[in-house]
Amino acid sequence: MTHVITSLCLRDNGCSDVCPVESIQPGTTAEYPTYYIDSSTCIDCGACVPECPFHAIFPEDEVPGAFKAKGGEYINEAGLTGRYEAVNHRGQKVALDTTRALSAGEVIDLRGSIKTNAQFFK
Ligand code: SF4
C-alpha cells in the first residue's frame, strides 16, 4: 500500500517538506497540477497527512469514493478552468487555473487520484 495525494491538493507543499524519503513531487504541467506520491518509495509513515491544510492525503485504501464537501473546498484537476490564488505555508504565492470550487453538500469521487499518482511517476 501507499499514500495518495488527491485532487483536493492546492499545492501548499508542506507535505513534501516533511516526507523522510522524498517521495512527494510537484506536478509541473496542466496535466498534473497537484503534488504526487511515488508509490515505489513511500514507506507509509503518514507524516505528510497532518501537514496538508486541505486534508488531501489518504492511505490508498481509504481514498474516499464519496467525499462530501463542506463548501469552500476546491478540487484541482487537469481540464478544470477555475482560478485559485492563495499563499502557501512558506508564504509563497500559489496561483492555479485548473480548479473548481465545491458546493456545500456536493459529493465527489476522489479515487481517480490513485491512478493519476501512479501515472505521474511512469
Ligand atoms: S506516507 Fe510518509 S513516506 Fe509516504 S509520502 Fe507521506 S511522508 Fe512520505
Treating each run of at least 4 consecutive H or I residues as one helix, how many helices?
2
Tell me the fraction of residues in β-strands, as a range. 25-35%
Work out the count of structural domains: 1
| Main beta-sheet annotation | 3 strands, antiparallel
Task: Give Rg in angstroms.
Answer: 13 Å
Order of helices and strands: EHEEEEEEEEH
**Order of strands in the sheet with the most strands?**
6-8-7
**Quick one: how many beta strands?**
9
Distance between the termini: 17 Å
Explain what the structure shows.
It is a single chain. The chain has 122 residues and is an alpha+beta fold. It has one domain (3-120): Alpha-Beta Plaits (2-Layer Sandwich), CATH 3.30.70. It contains two helices and nine strands; from the N terminus they run E-H-E-E-E-E-E-E-E-E-H. It has helices at residues 14-18, 112-120; strands at 3-5, 24-26, 35-37, 57-59, 67-68, 74-76, 82-87, 93-101, 107-108. It has a three-stranded antiparallel beta sheet with strand order 6-8-7, with no helix packed on it. It has a two-stranded antiparallel sheet with strand order 1-4. A two-stranded antiparallel sheet has the order 2-3. It is globular and about 35 Å long. It starts with a strand and ends with a helix. Bound molecules: iron/sulfur cluster (SF4). Iron/sulfur cluster binds next to loops.
